[in-house]
Write a structure and sequence with these properties.
This protein is mostly helical. Helices cover 74% and strands 0% of the residues. The two termini are 19 Å apart.
Length: 363
C-alpha cells in the first residue's frame, strides 16, 4: 500500500496534522492551527482530480461521487460522536462532551459548536463537495470546461471579498472562521490545481515556478505572527487568502517530491511519514477531545513539560488505536463495496472507483 502512495502528498498530510496537533498541544504554537488550510488544499486537489477525470470519461454521477466521499468520512465521524457521547457520561458537565442533532447533518459550523470542535472543518468540506457537482456542472454547461482556468481563481476570491465586505460594514459574524462561505478558498484552489493537473499538464509543469514563490508565504506569515502575535480576527480575515495561495505552492511542489532512502533509518522515517498520513483523519477527529479528558484525569498533576508530553503522547496513541479499530476497517469495507459495484458495471467506472479508493485520504 505504501508503494502506491505519493510520498510528497503524504508528507504534506503529515505536516498538516503535525501543525494542527501541536497548535492544540502547545499554547505558544497556536498559530500552527492554519495547518487545517493545508488540509483544505490537499482535499480539494485529491477530490478535484476524481471529479474532473470522471467528468472527462463520462462516468461521473453526483451519487457515485458523494458515495465514495461519505464511505470515507462518515463512519469515523459517527464513531467519534459516539466517543464524545460516551465520555459525556463520565464528565456530563463538560461542554466538550456535548453535541446537538445538527451534528448529524454537518450544520454545527453555522448553528453552534459544542463538543468535537474540530468538526467545523469537516462541515466546510462536506458543504463544498455537496455543491461541487452542481456548481461545476453549471459552469461547464454554460461557459465550457476551459472556463475553469479563470472561473476557479475568481471563485477563490469570493470568501476574501465576503470577509472584506463584512469588515467594512459592521464586522464579521462571531463564527465566521467556521463558516463555509467565509473559509473555503483553499478547497477551491485545490480544485484549480487538480484542473491544471488533469486538463493542462504543460501549465501544471510550468506552475512550479510560481509555486516556489508562493510556498514562502506561509513561512513568512508564521514568522511574522511569531514576532508580532495577534488575536485580531480582522487581521486573520484579511490574510486567509494568502495562506491558501501559499499552501497551494506547498502542495504543487510536494507532489513532485520523490524519496527512495538507502538506509534503514531513512526507511523508518519514510514509513513513519506514510503512517502518520494514513491515520491523520483519526488524529484530527479526536485529538482535542483526548487532550481535554486526559487533563481532567490528571488534574492533580502540576502543569509542566512532563505532563504536557504525557498528554500529547498518550493522546496520539489513542488516536492511532481509533484508526486501527474504526477508520481502517471502514476503509476496507468501502473498498469491498466499491469493488462489488465495479463488477456490476462496465470497465470504465472501474478507473474512477479505483482512484476514489486510493486517493481520498485527506481529512
Amino acid at each position: 500500500m505504501v508503494a502506491k502512495r505519493n510520498f510528497g502528498l503524504d508528507l504534506a498530510r503529515a505536516l498538516a496534522i503535525a501543525m494542527v496537533y501541536f497548535s492544540h498541544a502547545v499554547t505558544a504554537l497556536a498559530s500552527l492551527g492554519v495547518g487545517v488550510d493545508l488540509f483544505f488544499l490537499l482535499s480539494g486537489f485529491l477530490i478535484g482530480r476524481i471529479y474532473l477525470r470522471s467528468q472527462s470519461d463520462g462516468t461521473f454521477t453526483p451519487w457515485t461521487f458523494w458515495r465514495a466521499r461519505w464511505w470515507r468520512t462518515l463512519p469515523p465521524y459517527l464513531a467519534a460522536i459516539a466517543v464524545v457521547a460516551s465520555f459525556g457520561l463520565i464528565w456530563p458537565h463538560e461542554v466538550t462532551h456535548q453535541f446537538r442533532w445538527y451534528y448529524l447533518f454537518f450544520l454545527q459550523n453555522y448553528l453552534g459548536i459544542l463538543g468535537l470542535s474540530v468538526s467545523w472543518s469537516l462541515c466546510v468540506e462536506e458543504h463544498f463537495y455537496l455543491a461541487l457537482p452542481f456548481l461545476g456542472g453549471a459552469v461547464e454547461t454554460v461557459l465550457g470546461r476551459r472556463s475553469f482556468l479563470w472561473v476557479l481563481p475568481l471563485a477563490a476570491l469570493i470568501p476574501q471579498f465576503l470577509r472584506t465586505w463584512f469588515l467594512l460594514h459592521g464586522g464579521l459574524p462571531d463564527r465566521w472562521y467556521w463558516m463555509t462561505n467565509f473559509h473555503c478558498e483553499g478547497l477551491i484552489l485545490g480544485v484549480f490545481l487538480a484542473y491544471l493537473f488533469v486538463d493542462h499538464p504543460e501549465l501544471w509543469k510550468r506552475s512550479r515556478r510560481f509555486a516556489y514563490a508562493a510556498s514562502l508565504v506561509p513561512v513568512l506569515l508564521l514568522v511574522g505572527l511569531k514576532i508580532h502575535p495577534t488575536s485580531s480576527m480582522k487581521l486573520h480575515g484579511a490574510i486567509f487568502l494568502y495562506w491558501a495561495i501559499g499552501f497551494a505552492g506547498w502542495t504543487r511542489l510536494l507532489y513532485d517530491l520523490k524519496w527512495s532512502p538507502s538506509t534503514a533509518a531513512g526507511s523508518l522515517v519514510k514509513n513513519s511519514i506514510h503512517g502518520l498520513a494514513l491515520c491523520s483523519y483519526s488524529v484530527y477527529l479526536l485529538h482535542t477531545l483526548f487532550f481535554t479528558d486526559l487533563r481532567l484525569l490528571l488534574v492533580g498533576w502540576q502543569r509542566g513539560p512532563a505532563k504536557s508530553l504525557t498528554v500529547a503522547g498518550v493522546t496520539f496513541l489513542f488516536c492511532v488505536a481509533f484508526y486501527f479499530l474504526v477508520e481502517r476497517p471502514t476503509i476496507r469495507m468501502r473498498d469491498r463495496y466499491l469493488s462489488r459495484g465495479i463488477t456490476k458495471h462496465s470497465e470504465a467506472p472501474a478507473v474512477v472507483a479505483k482512484e476514489a479508493v486510493s486517493t481520498i485520504t485527506a481529512a
